[in-house]
Amino acid sequence: MLIGELSRRTGVNAHQLRYYAAQGLLEADRGANGYREYRENAVLRVKQIRHLLGAGLSSEDIAYLLPCATGEAPELFGCPELLAAMRSRLRRLDDRMTALARSRDALAGYIDAAERMGGEKCPPFGDAGLEPVSA
Questions:
Q1: Torsion, CA 66, CA 1, CA 12, CA 74, rounded to 10
Q2: Is residue 126 predicted with pLDDT exceeding 70?
Q3: Which of 1, 25, 55, 135 is least surrounded, with the fewest CB atoms within 10 Å of its CB?
Q4: In sequence order, what are the residues at sequence separation of 6 or more whose Cβ sits closer than 8 angstroms to the Cβ of residue 39?
């Protein structure tokens, strides 16, 4: 099938499909006319890629995981190397979430303190060289 048909059947635009191919996630043959030609299993592969992207995995992570994937959801075979890679990714996500939570708490604290202080003593934004930020 041509890229337009694959796009129609998966709901993924052609630009993204080309990106998946460039990342080594999706294989295409070239016809005599130079057009990309996808096999029937490309529909399943694109659905697997979309699910894994939805889990927050990078295209590099997905390239590593796809050989262990089966089914649309997909299910992954639990080989030790695969589990180690997914646990590493989960730790990185947990670390990012912890850092974001700290930033959020600090910002909320600044907002609370600023609201308690009131605005009477604030210099005009123009005097401090600052611009107000819309919420």
A1: -30
A2: no
A3: 135
A4: 1, 27, 29
